[in-house]
Amino acid sequence: MKKRSFVKTAIAGVVTAAALGGSAYAQEVTLRLHQFLPPPATVPAKILKPWATAVEEASGGRIAIQHFDAMSLGGRPPELMDQARDGVVDLSMTVVGYTPGRFPRTEVFELPFMMTNPVATASAYWEMVETDWQSNEYKDVKVLGAWVHGPGVVHSKDGVNSLEDMKGLTVRGPTRIINDMLSELGAEPVGMPLPAIPEALSKGVVKGTVIPWEVTPAIRLSELVTNHTEFSGDEALYAATIVLVMNKAKYEALPDDLKAIIDAESGAKLSKFATQVMWDEDAPARAIAEKAGNTIVELDAAEVARWKDAAGPVIERWIADMDGKGLDGSALIEQAKALIKKHGG
């Protein structure tokens, strides 16, 4: 009788678990994802959360991803990479250039007028990560996605209609390379993460900033400045590089089937998706500035050519810097351009 009761209890437990859809095993792994943008911004709302939902659903509930936006777990945006590396968090999204000089190869995609088609550029960036940079550039973390935003735009209080208008202008820049470019263009660059822009503009620390249209609604930029400068032609003024990374030990400890699920939703798929979403969001964000009556100018081909010439020393310095690190800067540029073209850029 006791044996029969034990068997009945065991069977009942299996039936109950099955009835609950396997809920007893529903959250084998909980991952904490930390990033610097507010929840309504494009990246968390339309990229990271849909990606996480796809992973959770594909895992049948065995993976749960918790979202911590706007640095809610503490620290500053430049610390996000190390938070994932050190296991303070399991996943983090960050701008690579927030840690200046630490990821030198990646800077090739931030060089002035390097980016053509953003999705093609993201595909090239991911291919470099997958085939080479994961083992050196990003050896301390597991890269799940590597992408770029849409074309960079100059947003200013007083307006930039020509290269001369950049002279002496205090402009926020996101990364070492982009700040170097701003300096070469005649501006006075001030490096800071994106969340610091509103206060810096309000207090007069800077009179302008470079960011893509897509993220301007998240910081209400069209209310803080009234002038926006775009660039004609196929090449963007600049792009910043963005990654979603995971703690290596956490990833490696996952069962193979869960690794496969994360891999299937990440990599090239995530990189292209993220860039396309950000690029698509440029238009509605630009429309907000138009509706506000702000001034939007597009520099013509002749003026853009002047900016390209002025930015040339940035590329020369970067090549010399890479060569000094034992890397072939010229070869990296040629490889990046070839891969962008290969992917349709």
Structure write-up:
The chain has 345 residues and is an alpha/beta fold. It is globular, with a radius of gyration of 23 Å. It has 13 helices and 11 strands. Helix 4 runs antiparallel to helix 10 and helix 4 (118-131) crosses helix 13 (329-342). It has helices at residues 2-19, 42-58, 80-86, 118-131, 176-184, 197-202, 221-224, 248-252, 256-265, 267-280, 282-291, 301-324, 329-342; strands spanning 29-34, 63-68, 91-95, 141-148, 153-156, 170-173, 188-191, 208-211, 227-231, 241-247, 295-299. The strands form 2 sheets. It has a 6-stranded mixed sheet. Strands 2-1-3-10-4 form a 5-stranded mixed sheet, sandwiched between helices.
State Rg: 23 Å
Question: What's the β-strand tally?
Answer: 11
Strands of the biggest beta sheet: in what spatial order? 7-6-8-5-9-11
Q: H/E order of the elements?
A: HEHEHEHEEEHEHEHEEHHHHEHH
Q: Per the principal axes of the C-alpha atoms, what is the gross shape?
A: globular
Amino-to-carboxy terminus distance: 74 Å
Class per helix and strand makeup: alpha/beta
Largest sheet: 6 strands, mixed
Q: Please tell me the overall pLDDT.
A: 93
Percent of residues in helices comes to: 40-55%
Q: How many helices?
A: 13
Strand content: 15-25%
Low-confidence stretches: 1-26
Set out the fold topology.
Blueprint: H1 2-19, E1 29-34, H2 42-58, E2 63-68, H3 80-86, E3 91-95, H4 118-131, E4 141-148, E5 153-156, E6 170-173, H5 176-184, E7 188-191, H6 197-202, E8 208-211, H7 221-224, E9 227-231, E10 241-247, H8 248-252, H9 256-265, H10 267-280, H11 282-291, E11 295-299, H12 301-324, H13 329-342
Parallel strand pairs: 1-2, 1-3, 6-7, 6-8, 9-11
Antiparallel strand pairs: 3-10, 4-10, 5-8, 5-9
Helix pairs in contact: 2-10, 4-10, 4-13, 5-12
